[in-house]
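User: I'll paste a sequence; please echo it back and then give the predicted structure.

Assistant: Echoing your sequence first, then the prediction.
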Amino acid sequence: MRGRIVLFVVLAVVLALVGVYVGWSANTPTAVGEPAPATPADLSVGSQAAGSAQPRVPVATGPNASAPKASPPKATAGHATQPNQTPSTPPTSPPRRAGPVRFGRVTTAGPPSETGISDDRRALTTTFSDFEVIANPASAEPSATKSFAMTLHLTDGAEGEKLGFHVSGWAATTAGTTARLTLQGGGRTIVKSFPSGTDEAYVGTLWLPATPGTTYQLSVVLEIHKDAGGADGYINAANIESGIS
């Protein structure tokens, strides 16, 4: 009987020692500075944190995969994004008419005259009755002058045409006397001189570009000059033919 009691005591002591040993192995402290062994769950979470603070977006692969869509640009301060906005087009001047240039309003100043304009307003004729300068031995003046002015307005039309201004008349001078015709307009000046002993008809011509929408100021000046012994001198303008061609 006593032997059995001793046997039970020995078994109890052995079991107690085994339990103490197992508990000590499971609760062994970790060394300072040495990480604890990682579990499979810890490894999964750790690898995600080491890669990026943001969760990764799975990338689609395969034949039906599409590229990621780009986000629309954000508007910045002072530069609002306005969809479907088209740049403004600067205004353009209206095109000129393709038809011919014609005479518009015509005015004259100077000696009495009559002006007639053709039906198509592409030609006009001005005639004079006494647009003339006369010098004679009785005149004490060394020179005599008379002038005529005309204002021509041109309508809109095609470029590239010309305006002709033709003055016709007669010049007659004797010894010691000379005559001169001067045409001016559009920034140009034409001078036609007649020496002593002239007795002839003349035509003086001034050519100008027929610029659409332009107003021309044209003038005709007749002059007689004589020296101390000069005798007779005469020059006139009978008519002016103006045309656009």
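The longest strand covers residues 143-154. The helical segments are 2-26, 40-51.
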